[in-house]
Structures are given as C-alpha cells and as structure tokens.
Amino acid sequence: MSKALREEAAAGEPVPPGADPQAAVQSELSDLERLSGRGRGRTVLAVLGPAFVACIAYIDPGNFATNITAGSTYGYLLVWVLVSANLMAMLIQNLSAKIGIATGKNLPELCREHFRRPVVRGLWVQAEIVAMATDLAEFVGAALALNLLFGVPLLPAGIITAVASFGILSLQQRGYRRFEVALVFFLLIILLGFLYNTLQIGFDAGAAAAGLVPSFDGAESVLLATGILGATVMPHVIYLHSALTQGRIKPRDDDERRKLLRFQRIDVTLAMGVAGVVNLLMLLVAASLFFGGDLAGTDTIEGAYSGFDQLIGGDAALAFALALLASGFASSSVGTYAGQVVMQGFINRTIPLTLRRAITMAPALIVLAIGVNPTDALVISQVVLSFGIPFALVPLVLLTRRADVMGVLVNKPITTIAAAVVAALIISLNLFLVVQIVIG
Fold it and tell me: Which of 41, 106, 210, 300 makes the best surface tag, with the fewest CB within 10 Å?
C-alpha cells in the first residue's frame, strides 16, 4: 500500500458509497507494489526474463562456429578471450537494461532524440548491416542442424528456420511471458546438450586454467578472438535489452527505479552466467576432443558433429545437433525482434514483419544456395558483428553517463570508466585485426 493510502486509512477517511474498498486500494498501487504483495520470491520470478531473452543471442550458431574453431585449432589458448567477453557482456547488458528502466525509452529511441540526424541515420544503416550478419549466423546454423539431423538440404532448411522463427515470435502476441518461457526452454536444451557432452568427454582443467593468461598465436588467432568477441557481445541485443525493460514494469518514482535495477542485475547475472558457461563448455569440449587428437584440425560444425559420432558415439552427436538447432531457432526469433526495435527506434518507421524478415535473411539464403562453406560464413559474420559493437556501445556509454537522461540511475564515474575501457579494448582489437590482415 502506498504511503498516501496508509495515511488515509489511518485517518479513517470514508470510502465513497458503492465503492469496493479493496479495489480502491489496489487501483492506487503501482505495478511493483502489486508484485511485491505476492512475496519476494514471486516478485523476483515475475521480474526475471529480459536478460534471458538477450542471452539467447550470446549462444547463437555463431558462437558454435567461433568456439569450436578456437578450441580445435588453438586448444585452450583463447579461454581468456571468452571469459573476458562474457564479463564485458554482463556490464554492457546491465547498462542497456538500466537505460530502459531509467528513461522508459530504448537505446535507438534515445539516439534519435539526443543525436544529430546524420549520426542517427548512420547508426541505423550500420545496425541493419549487423542485423543481416546476425541472420546469416542464425539461419546457417539452424539449417546445418536440420541437415545433420534429418538430411534436409541447406536452402530448404533455411526456409524452415524462417517459418520456425515466426512461430516462436508469434508467442509475444499472447504476452511476453510465453515468449520468454519458450526461449528459456531452448536455452535449457543447449545447456543440457553441452553438459552431457562435457561429462562424456571431460577436459584438462590445468590447461584450461592456463588459457586464462592472455596470449595470441599469430593473426589467425586474433581473427578468431575478434569473432569470439563479436559472437559474445552482440550489438543487436544491446539495442534490444533496453526495449525489453522500458515498459515491462512501470516505476512510480525513483525508489522503484532503484528496486527494479537491483532485480535486473540479478536477471543479467543469472542469464549471462548461463550463457558464459555454455560458451565455455563449447570451447573446452572442442579443445579436449579435437586439438592434437586423432581428428586434429576439425574446425567446422559438420566436422565436429562427425567427430562426436566417431569418437564418443551417436548420443553425443545428437546432443550437439539438438543444441545447435535450439540455438538457431531461438536466436533467429530474437534477431527479428531486435530488428524491429532498431528500425522503429532510429527512424520511427515500421514495416511488415514478413518483409523485414525477407530482407535481412536474403544474404543467409544466398550463402546457403551458392554453397559457401557454412562454418567460414559463420566465423566471418561474427567478425562483422564485432565491428558493429562500438556503434551500439559508444552511444550507450555516452547516454548512461548523462544525468539529464538517466536521472538517479546515472552511471557512477567508475562504471563509465569501465564501460569506456571495454569500448576502447574492442575498438583496438578490431583495428589490430585490420592491420594484421593488411600486413599479412
């Protein structure tokens, strides 16, 4: 009950004739107060969800490609990149969730409001390119899984993926909770698949710990590190997460904004923690099974599936393929959702979902049709995503540091510094990659 209502009750204020006293009290309660009346446990469960939608993008088929290639080619060398990228993701997604709670607007909307029009147009164009790279990873990955599991040719499998993504996304029409539950179901399939294979295969804990020491082994390892970064810190979900929190629970005042932020930190920590575990298991399994072994040099998803079957058995291969399929279906629906947020936010326009999906999935279907190596396409798509990260991250840092935008939830100086360092590291790694490619 709000303070005003408690004071009225204590003062014995009369209830209007014919009015329901309980209904009158409920009508004065905020969204958060209504949830709090159900108990802390149920309140936490009701608030959780946005970060779990976002985390699906952190374990999409692009992650399969980069993590398996990294593990099979360099063993545990790039474990430190994966762990660092996941910690960066936690910071970034916390900022994205916070901006939606603080302002009631999403990041693209705020960019349109506070930046000059040419800048906004440029941000929108690059965000659409990133959306195409995202679709490329998701469609190719799901198509590969359908091909491995059922022998479906890649192009028809890509079309099946498009239909599946529409079906999953349509759950939103019945409320956001159904959509979130469906994505959590897919997340569990992915997690259980890699837990099963890790238990079957095992890994060298000492060598994995040694991989936490930063190091590279030539330009190719830098390329893979950039791909891992692009696959882990996904630029389109930096935009999306702010939209997921902007109107989910409307805070009445600054105190409620602070409470919602605390709940969202729990959400982000849990969701990004699960995503980090899944990514780490991918790399550890690939390093343990393929690096320096009988199938050394296995660096494709198809090769990994075959290797699981040959070295461990059909159950391990099935677990891997099902995890890949769940990843492709779930992440493609999240990618479509993010694309709508980007267009509506940056240029205040919407187009039919079917048309939007047709445009962004076209490059993926072309790749499937002309027979480009799927794993190579996945890795390159993740490098494109890595180059897109600063265009989402820099505006996020600039806006969350402004008190006139964020109010009481404005960044503390240490948070802004940490986020700026993350942005600088990502930009530096991308520039280093360009130099290596030119020199090489």
Answer: 41
Three-point CA angle 119, 121, 125, nearest 5°? 115
What are the tokens at 77?
């060398």
Round to whole Å and give the CA distance between 105 and 109. Answer: 6
Q: What was the pLDDT predicted at 12?
A: 40
CA distances from residue 48 to 52, 190, 255, 264 in whole angstroms, order as listed = 8, 20, 19, 7
Q: At what angle do helices 314-347 and 61-74 cross, to 10 degrees?
A: 130
Could you tell me if residue 9 is inside a domain? no
Residues with Cβ within 8 Å of 156's Cβ and at least 6 positions away in sequence, in order, are: none
> Which token pair is 34?
């209504």
CA distance 362 to 351: 16
User: What is the tally of structural domains in the chain?
Assistant: 1
In a domain, 11, yes or no: no
Closest by CA position to 335, among listed 131, 66, 65: 131
Q: Is the distance from CB of 286 to CB of 204 less than 8 angstroms?
A: no
Residues in contact with 65: Cβ distance below 8 Å, sequence separation at least 6, in sequence order: 137, 141, 227, 231, 301, 375, 378, 379, 382
- 192 or 45: which leads in pLDDT: 192
266: left (phi over 0), alpha (psi -120 to 50) or beta: alpha
Q: Is residue 231 part of a domain?
A: yes
At 306, the amino acid letter reads S
CB 230 within 8 A of CB 58: no
Residue whose structure tokens are 């993350």: 422
Residue 376 domain boundaries = 49-439
User: Structure tokens of 25?
Assistant: 């009290």
Task: Give the per-residue pLDDT at 18.
Answer: 52
Token look-up 């409307």 returns: 250
Residue 320 lies in a domain: yes
**pTM summary value:** 0.87
User: What is the model's pLDDT at position 227?
Assistant: 74
